[in-house]
Give the backbone structure.
Amino acid sequence: MPAKRTYDIRSLARQFAMPGDYMSHAPCGYGHINDTYEVRFNQAGTAVRYILQRINHEVFTQPEDVMENIRRVTTHIADRLDALGEPDASRKVLTLIPCRDGRFWHRDAEGNHWRGYFYIEGAEAHNHVNSTALAEEAARAFGVFQRHLSTMGGKRLADTIPDFHNTRARFNVFRRAVEENRAGRRDSVAREIDWCLSREATADLLLDLFAAGKLPERITHNDTKINNVLMDHQSGEGLCVMDLDTVMPGLALYDFGDLVRTTTISTAEDERDSTKVMLRLPMFEAVVRGYLSAASDFLAAEEVNQLAFSGKLITFELATRFLADHLNGDTYFKTHRPNHNLDRFRVQVALVDDLDRQYSQMQDIVGAAMA
Ligand code: ADP
Ligand code: GN1
Ligand code: MG
């Protein structure tokens, strides 16, 4: 495993308008992509913390486009919250901290891009869902996020990762990883590769509906896993959607699909014993309820028709991504143990299989919610 990089967080924080005496910093969260720190300051006797985050520029090759998207999106949502007279608005949308030179990002001597946010207090991100109330609130928060962005004007947002959820393109990338066999692991995962290949047709369904004009392009989050939303400690409310690097044009169903993947699962995403993986129908019912409570008035009929399928699609997409990364030698997702991506892959497979088994009940749940 490569040694973890260390950064001079104290002097990096100095580049931002984070006033006060530096006290301490610590790594934050369990994301697979960026490096996130909380940094504490003493501001004339009051302890305040900020988020300082390194953008992974191997994944996001145009960090300045990412920052411009985030600036526009957070400004738009903050304006909406203000216009609606929403209480506690600065805990409901991320607030970027400017640098001393007025920009919203700092480029360090090694070429890393950094950004700062207000630290949202009194809330936490969950890695696992253990109540239907949590599933429902998280889904509502992502629905509200999409609703806010449905009124955003201006030019099209940048595609920060082109073809991010283009499942046909993803499938082709997976096939290339099999052909290239860069880490020499292909023979050891022959059965796993066959599982993916046998499900190739899954990749095209939403893309075909989009091409036929039945699914509209929207501004979507594209990374709606459960630990990308902060939940209020006291009320349990889905408070603030985070991890905005992938906010860009997309399909609403990609967001709903990743909610299904990460809330209905009975285990962690990287559970070692995939026989424990099940799809929990009460959680599915809760995410349908929560999401539709915010989104039913703007969704098209075909979007509602495909809610259950979207969970399968995104879980299948992640299966191919994790297996491709295993074949490539673990170069994309952070890994913390040998075969970590392979374990993640096996969990996705088990979830897709259970989703197939429970598919008609899932369709019934969506039907009942719309009745
Ligand atoms: P990654 O892309 O690596 O997943 P995230 O943007 O999701 O990075 O941030 C990682 C974690 O840091 C989050 O899950 C959350 O726990 C914490 N975090 C990020 N931004 C904030 C914030 N503004 N306030 C409080 N916690 C935050
Ligand atoms: C990554 O950054 P994080 O951990 O929220 C990934 C998502 C995957 C997810 C799988 C930019 O999300 O697409 O669904 O891991 N983000 C990127 O856990 O690739
Ligand atoms: Mg994250």
In short: The chain is about 45% helix and 15% strand. The chain has two domains: 9-121, 132-370. The first strand starts at residue 21 and ends at 27.
